[in-house]
Amino acid sequence: MYTQAMDIPDAATKPAGVSRTPDAQDAAFEARIDADGRIEPQDWMPEAYRKTLVRQISQHAHSEIVGMLPEGNWISRAPSLKRKAILIAKVQDEGGHGLYLYSAAETLGTSRDQMLDALHSGKAKYSSIFNYPTLSWADVGVIGWLVDGAAIMNQIPLCRCSYGPYARAMVRVCKEESFHQRQGYEALLVMMKGSDAQKAMVQDAVNRWWWKCLAMFGPPDADSPHSAQGQRWGIKRISNDELRQKFVDATVPQAEVLGVTLPDPDLKWNEDRQHYDYGQIDWAEFWATVEGDGPCNRERLATRVKAHRDGQWVRDAALAHARKQQERTNKEAA
Amino acid sequence: MNAPVDYLLHLADNAVVLGQRNAEWCGHGPILEEDIALANVSLDHIGQARLLYQLAAARMGGGASEDSLAYFRDETGFRNYTLLELPHHGPLVGYAASDRDYAVTIVRNFFYGALMVLVWDGLTRSADADLAAIAAKSLKEARYHLHHAADWVVRLGDGTDESHARAQAAVDHLFRYTEEFWLPSPAETEAVAAGVGVDVASLRADWNALVDETLAEATLSRPTVRGYVPEGKLGRHSEHLGYLLGEMQGLARAHPGATW
Fold first, then answer.
1. pLDDT per residue over A124-177, tens digit each?
2. Residue B225 and which of A58, A166, A241, B148 are 20 to 30 A apart at CA?
3. Which residues of B fall within a CB distance of 8 Å from A318?
4. Rounded percentage of chain A residues whose pLDDT exceeds 70
5. Among B27, B42, B255, whose Cβ lies nearest the Cβ of A68?
6. What top-level class would CATH report for the domain B5-254?
């Protein structure tokens, strides 16, 4: 669904530095980056580039599978069969995104098991937006509209990222995400034409998610240590603040059509800037959540860990059966 | 020739209840690939339920809709097999809490999948053209569901000591619920007489063959069944359906008349 990776280092990872070995490989790599070319798995790449990508892609994959939980929370209670089917398909898409992002990261020499261990031990991060609870059915629509909308702003530039497997995975992810966003918005439009209770449900969900979505773009550019390197490598092409502004400008008219109020008294059109001004984001709350002290961090991670642990015997059975099959085949061949 | 509405509801209720159950694994699967596969199976079932409810609603008239049938009928109105409403764990009372057991999920999908490839195949020849069209689509899905479940029955049965024990326990727990398959309900009898339904008793030998072949490959044994025969398709259910429907229908019922 979304990654903040360039901005939030894993607990045990130092910010990546640039390898400056002045040899031919390095020169070829740099030349290809300068020419806006693609780096492929078999190509030589600096260790820092590889590490940064593994971190960013795996964080993105983790975000997808942790992101299944807040929306999965409403599958059993979806108020119509059509919405139930749409929601199952959406959460399933997120699982699919996780799958091909883990695969993209594996091309860099890190196994899915290693990445999952890093998630389960708390070493690897995932998008902090999923550490907030989904409290009503309207949250499902608002997550589609705003959270996926913010994710798309972040992810479209990644379709041109310098690492080939990631860029190609992102083309498909972005297509599906924009479909999710339209579905979310459409669900809200229907609710806003409904009863007062339904309208109140939508407004309440917008109130709870708006500021969290603005924070999804990561800290202001002045406080964002990795962005310069990320831009150089074509891993992150547009700054946090630029993306955030783009998101606000796109969302305000959508909120008007929907008939909801965005909960920011400072939100207004600035004729000089030709952009909307917006109020102060509560970064203390954001960082507390990133650091593990948000409303649902413990539940999200513990649920992933439990699913993995409870599934161990199933994975063991599949491996044992495959091994026995192989032995039987070998015996027949002998 | 139209199939009796109760017959359509039986098929639809089966699909919606199992779809609801299998979706409970979404985000909690033992491996990401299985999480996605089960969501897919669940989606197929919800899709089948929608088509069948839409057909039933059109024939019932009086403002009935797929959602009024799924969300605003009570337990006794549901005509699904009891097998499909059971939670993903061994035999426990309705309000007991327990971890989900993937073996129960898989064995249930296997028993039901083996039945439905036969039922849908028979219904492709139904004199009810609308039902035959739904059957043609559903048959393709049921073949995949059976394939998926049977593969896993073999993996679990032939895998480790633990997986074998869990799979056998699931077979022992669920097998008697399959007895309900073979006892024709009044709706089924009516449908067969009208040439629109499938005579379930006639499917038993083929079902046995499908099931026995896979259980043998999985080194699992088939328990002897006696006593209680469930009657979910007559509207008499286990303690578990009330909880399932309570969760599924709660939000819709809190806002009667709302459009979503």
1. 999 999 999 999 999 999 999 999 999 999 899 899 899 999 999 999 999 999
2. B148
3. 31, 155, 159
4. 91
5. B27
6. mainly alpha
Domain borders along chain B are: 5-254
| Best B106, B155, B217 residue to mutate vs chain A (most A CBs within 10 Å) | B155
Nearest-CA distance A12 → chain B (Å): 26
Cα separation, A168 vs A160, whole angstroms: 8
Six-digit token pair at A253? Answer: 């008219």
Distance to chain B for A275, nearest Cα, Å: 34
Say yes or no for a CB contact (<8 Å) between A85 and B43: yes
Look up residue A105 and give its two tokens. Answer: 């990261």
ipTM at complex level: 0.98
**Nearest CB to A321: which of B32, B66, B159?**
B159
> Is A320 within 8 Å of chain B by CB?
yes
SS (H, E, C) chain A: CCCCHHHCCCCCCCCCCCCCCCCHHHHHHHHHHHCCCCECCCCCCCHHHHHHHHHHHHHHHHHHHHHHHHHHCCCCCCCCHHHHHHHHHHHHHHHHHHHHHHHHHHCCCCCHHHHHHHHHCCCCCCCHHHHCCCCCHHHHHHHHHHHHHHHHHHHHHHHHCCEHHHHHHHHHHHHHHHHHHHHHHHHHHHHHCCCHHHHHHHHHHHHHHHHHHHHCCCCCHHHCCCHHHHHHCCCCCCCHHHHHHHHHHHHHHHHHHHCCCCCCCCCEEECCCCEEECCCCCHHHHHHHHHHHCCCHHHHHHHHHHHHHHCHHHHHHHHHHHHHHHHHHHHHHC
The residues, any chain, with a CB within 8 Å of residue A99's CB and separated by 6 or more, are B32, B33, B36
CA distance A288 to chain B (A): 25
A91 to B251: CB separation less than 8 angstroms, yes or no: no
Please give the pLDDT value at position A225: 63
Question: Could you report the per-residue pLDDT of A57-114, keeping only the tens digit for each?
Answer: 999 999 999 999 999 999 999 999 999 999 999 999 999 999 999 999 999 999 999 9
Q: Does A92 touch chain B (CB under 8 A)?
A: yes
pTM of the model: 0.94
> Each residue of B14-55: pLDDT tens digit?
999 999 999 999 999 999 999 999 999 999 999 999 999 999
Mean pLDDT, range A295-321, rounded to an integer: 98
Contacts B159 to A, Cβ<8 Å = 316-321
